[in-house]
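Backbone-to-sequence.
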């Protein structure tokens, strides 16, 4: 698995498939494997580039403050290294913040933008949750941490599937590339320190905004605000799934994404 040295860190990335390049940027507490359930559909039509954001997975985890703009710079330099001039960009949650900053800083690099479970600026409740998620890992073990986080991510229907949540918690506990408590703190503060509200009008590429109807962490109103502020933006609200719709509803998500991308190439 390849890594590249950029911005003072080793950044892990993975490339699969063929076709127009599609970049996937994961969110808080997640590395490139978070996209796994969508990969069979996406690689059938696209060259898919995934990465581990700084601090996550197999990328370096420097113990100093991070910013969303810094992580967007990491992505831009990765694209330069790979030799990709233009790419479709897809971000989930914190990854969608990074995607917004990427297109704002490097508009010529981005063919289209897809923002899932996204926002421009969080409200007070959201900010309180993210602040807590950054502070908590230093005070509880990983199993309890996941038990605190998961109810904000997954729906009642998902919880009702026998053994599903327990299996995910067990997977997280045994995952060999767990983030450090300091990384989660730095990521939480990067999320809180970012605001694209006044700059969304400068995003001019075709944009898809997608959110689960049952998302209680980044509710539909956040996505509606994005779609209203970004020129040429389209919003899709999925009836199935909450914030973790990449795990709960991967087929529905992949279908919307591929339909959006297909219309751009006609």
């Amino acid at each position: 698995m390849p890594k590249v040295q950029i911005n003072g860190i080793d950044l892990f990335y993975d490339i699969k498939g063929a076709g127009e390049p599609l970049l996937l940027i994961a969110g808080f507490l997640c590395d490139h494997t978070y996209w796994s359930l969508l990969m069979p559909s996406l690689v059938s039509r696209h060259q898919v580039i995934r990465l581990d954001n700084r601090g996550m997975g197999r990328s370096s985890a420097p113990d100093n403050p991070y910013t969303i703009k810094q992580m967007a710079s990491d992505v831009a330099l990765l694209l330069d290294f790979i030799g990709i001039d233009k790419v479709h960009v897809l971000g989930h949650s914190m990854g969608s913040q990074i995607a917004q900053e990427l297109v704002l800083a490097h508009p010529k690099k981005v063919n289209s933008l897809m923002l899932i479970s996204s926002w421009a600026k969080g409200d007070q409740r959201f900010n309180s949750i993210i602040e807590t998620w950054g502070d908590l890992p230093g005070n509880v073990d990983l199993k309890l941490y996941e038990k605190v986080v998961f109810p904000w991510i997954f729906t009642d229907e998902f919880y009702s599937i026998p053994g599903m949540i327990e299996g995910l918690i067990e997977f997280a506990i045994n995952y060999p590339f767990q983030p450090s408590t300091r990384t989660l703190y730095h990521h939480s503060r990067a999320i809180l320190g970012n605001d694209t509200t006044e700059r969304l009008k400068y995003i001019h590429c075709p944009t898809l905004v997608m959110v689960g109807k049952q998302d209680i962490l980044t509710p539909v109103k956040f996505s509606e605000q994005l779609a209203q502020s970004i020129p040429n933006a389209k919003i899709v609200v999925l009836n199935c799934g909450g914030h973790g719709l990449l795990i709960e509803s991967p087929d529905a998500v992949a279908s919307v994404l591929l339909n959006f991308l297909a219309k751009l190439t006609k």
